[in-house]
Amino acid sequence: MLALQGASREHTTAFEKLGANVRQVRQPQDLPDLDAIVIPGGESTTISMLLESSNTFDPLAELLANGLPALGTCAGMILLAKEVLDGRPDQRCFGQIDIAVRRNAFGRQVASFETDLDIENLDDPFPGVFIRAPGALALEPSVEVLASVKFDSGEETPVFCRQENVLVTSFHPELTDDLRLHQFFLEHL
């Protein structure tokens, strides 16, 4: 669990309820022998700068490039994306899922919302909590869309995507009591 900034505590609680052993990652020495990494929601530029200042970005990038499974929620989606369309010029991302994202794609804080999501392989809708959420605007064919949000205009925006062992969400599953997405990630490590 990347624990530099953001909702790491909430993710940790969810995974521990499922019986997972969670390690907080704050420095490069926390990285060896990880089975997977979760990059939580928060503020993507802040997390990026903290990764740099702690000298954790490059070692984590190497692990991800070598196949470390990852779950990125909200800011984590931005950091795992191949391209950030409106990020800071000096903001780095890991490029582990072939999507281009737009930060705050659904609007600023006042435009935050909740909606039920129909997610592939889940019988019942999942409660999606969107807070200054990014949106996947361009996807390569190798990216599987597991859920989208459809607007009144009929336009759909992918909000839950998978490519190999990398899962990303625009929303915050850790802010609900529903553990199905955390379980899904554990089952697909």
Shape category: globular
SS element count, helices: 5
In the CATH classification, which architecture applies? 3-Layer(aba) Sandwich
How far apart lie the N and C ends? 14 Å
Would you write up a description of this structure?
The chain is an alpha/beta fold and 189 residues long. The protein has a single domain, classed as Rossmann fold (3-Layer(aba) Sandwich). The protein has five helices and ten strands; from the N terminus they run αβααβαββββββββα. It has helices spanning 8-17, 44-53, 57-65, 75-80, 180-187; strands spanning 37-39, 70-73, 81-84, 97-102, 113-117, 126-130, 135-139, 144-150, 156-163, 166-169. It has a five-stranded mixed beta sheet. A three-stranded mixed beta sheet has the order 3-4-7. The longest helix has 10 residues, at 8-17. The model has no long low-confidence stretch (mean pLDDT 93).
How are the SSEs placed, and which strands pair?
Elements: H1 8-17, E1 37-39, H2 44-53, H3 57-65, E2 70-73, H4 75-80, E3 81-84, E4 97-102, E5 113-117, E6 126-130, E7 135-139, E8 144-150, E9 156-163, E10 166-169, H5 180-187
Parallel strand pairs: 1-2, 2-10, 3-4
Antiparallel strand pairs: 4-7, 5-6, 8-9, 9-10
